[in-house]
Amino acid sequence: MTETVIIGGGLAGAAAATLLAHAGKPPLLLERDAAPADKICGEFLSTEAQAHLAALGFDVGRLGGAPISRIRLVAGARSAEAALPFTAIGVSRRVLDAALLDHAAAAGAEIQRGVSVRGIDGGSLATSAGPVNAGTVLLASGKHEVRGAARDTKGTIDDLIGFKQYFRVDAAAHAALAGMIEVHLFDGGYAGLQLIEGGVANLCLLVTRARFAALGRNWDALFAALMTEPLLARRLADAQPLLPKPLTISGVPYGFIHHASPTDPARLFRMGDQAGVIPSFSGDGMSIALHSGRLAAHAVAAGADAATYHARLRGDVARQIRLATWLQRAGFSGIGQRLMIGVIGIAPALLGAIAGATRVPEPALKRAGLAIS
Ligand SMILES: Cc1cc2nc3c(=O)[nH]c(=O)nc-3n(C[C@H](O)[C@H](O)[C@H](O)COP(=O)(O)OP(=O)(O)OC[C@H]3O[C@@H](n4cnc5c(N)ncnc54)[C@H](O)[C@@H]3O)c2cc1C
User: Fold this and answer.
1) How close is the Cα of 288 to the center of ligand 1, in Å?
2) Which of 147, 280, 320, 325 to mutate to test the pocket of ligand 1 (most atoms within 8 A of CB)?
3) Separation of 11 CA from ligand 1 center, angstroms?
4) Are strands 2-7 and 130-139 parallel, antiparallel or unpaired?
5) Which residue segments constitute the domains of the chain, with CATH numbers given?
6) Which numbered atom of ligand 1 lies nearest the CA of 44?
7) 159 exposed, middle or buried (CB, 10 Å; 0-12, 13-18, 19+)?
8) Residue 254 · residue 158 · CB < 8 Å
9) What residue ranges of the chain have pLDDT lower than 50?
10) What is the mean pLDDT of the chain?
11) Is the CA virtual torsion 103, 300, 372, 194 positive or negative?
12) Residue 280 Cβ < 6 Å to ligand 1
């Protein structure tokens, strides 16, 4: 029997694997992708996420990401701009996740790539490489459900479709995006546009199923609709798409927070998106994933039970997830969008305040042993 098995080698899984290895309990981590892959994500790495990475002994600076210290909110011809209360980094998940898995392996974790977990029954895992028995299971499969441990996502916002495409933009767009994340509100959705390493721009957007259906369920039609937004059209006018087709995802359960129940398996620890899903605009999903990886690793190393860990994680992140989910609902209505731009136009500092209020709070980070500057 393997003492601890981690399912999923995204940020939550890699963080927990590194910390368990540091604690002298190196786990086995199973990742279904055989090689580094692009992931749908805005790739906005918050300061909290950076602090978590630093606490793992991981130098994110060497990945050459793009610093981001300002935010511009755009709706139609109107826009408002503010300083962020921190400097974020734009870095691709392909590069970040692969480097972090290598870091976990160097710390002593056993990483098996190309192995998919198909079902969980207590400590028995059915995998593409055969059965595995585990004393403790850390579930970090992100957006993907694993049979036998699916999330209860009733009441969440799951009617959105996500798209991501990379672009090589022209010099004017590059200059306008330097140091900036732009959030473009449009009918039925919003899009984030920012630079990542290598000067590439990441366009990551969410649109309601209803709006996408009205556009004939077609990316080209959606993109053409986006190009009627004046500022977005300026940014992407001469841009070259870099992926053969955009990455897409649907059914992400925004607002989900795992409620521990007495029927939960005692040794199943949910991490990252399997524990809670914050709306994407907050740019804090990666930080929550890393935070959960840290708390879970400490709990497992200390012999604590899963219920205690889940209650602690919930206490740290539930308020932020609820607030961000409420703001996301407001942002999708036409009135909500106009109100947001109007209010923020008068008091731009509000943008920074919203960015601050939807993050893992400082006391929770300090309790988890992080040095926050
Ligand atoms: C549209 C969109 C935009 C976003 N933008 C941002 C942003 O800008 N900033 C931010 O901080 N957050 C953002 N997020 C959220 C962020 O991407 C997630 O919260 C974060 O990736 C969760 O990390 P994780 O480790 O839980 O899961 P993931 O990073 O998804 O990793 C899960 C891993 O598990 C593997 N896996 C899945 N199933 C199995 C299986 N059965 N067996 C083995 N392996 C498996 C997958 O291959 C994957 O590598 C965004 C999310 C979306 C949907």
Assistant:
1) 11
2) 280
3) 7
4) parallel
5) 2-66+90-155+254-333+360-367 (3.50.50.60)
6) 8
7) middle
8) yes
9) none
10) 93
11) positive
12) yes
